[in-house]
Fold this protein.
Amino acid sequence: MKGEGEEAGRGSLTFNGHVRSGVNRLITTGAQFWRWLETQRPLKRTSLKLAILAVVVLFALYPNPVLLVRQVGHLLDMESLIQPNLPAMPEINRDIDQLLATNAVPLSEFKAVERFVLRRISYQYDWHGWWNLDYWPTAAEVWERKREDCDGRAVLAVSILRARGHREARLVANLQHVWVAVGTNELMGPMADKNFRREGGKMVDGKLVGAKTVITLPSLKTLLDSLAMTCKFPAWRVVLMLVTLLALVFHPSADTGRFAMLCAAMLAGYVIFLDWCVRRMDRDTAGFDWNFPVAAVLILGALALAWRTRAGGLQPPSSGSGT
């Protein structure tokens, strides 16, 4: 037993040694790259910084690039998402029929479809279900997973409505939400601000052909409400983007103490911003909220001071400055 314990202890020490060695190599490589980047011409240095920022932002928002490519295709051909001939559609319609009263008016049928989708498809944000910031799935993907956010639920609802004969059913959206329109009726949580909708067209083989896509600018309220949803997004991803941006602006300065202070100020701004997000999502603040401008001052102020340090305005005399 003693020998086994000693062997386990040696194994643990070896593992810890490998971890420390790996971390040290990573830090050394990062420092070398930091100094190498300083020696590059301004245009090349700026291009490299923008490339690094783009890679980090892409990783934080869309870590699954395959789904990102698929999402672009879905948005270019939204009718491909609507699948009224879904194999499970007969079963779905039987369940909905059980919710309907005899001789129900059409609006009651719409509500039955809405209730069915909300009950059978659990709500889950795309960044938890698909890892990406946003992904509009097909009706088959929604039904297979049984969990989605507003876009997936709306896609399934439109598919069901078309299968039940409501051929004019279509998707409507803004920056914050996706819902369903059937003629003058709307369901799945309609909102006043409609920034994306399809008008006209005709049905050919169950698909809407020749429809015109109408895109309008969102209202200030929609913009702020969409921004407030940041509190639902994984914080580590936002912090990764903020710290990367700050580091790239701070370069080529190597004053770690000042960088730590600027990071603290920026993260304090982010925490205050999250408080604003939660208050707005909970409708605790109907009008002006000081949290938003205070957060903006802290975050933008940290970036501005990082830029001044980078430019040499706050650079310690013993450190070299770069352009």
The beta strands are 122-123, 147-148, 170-173, 178-182, 185-187, 196-199, 202-204, 207-209, 212-215.
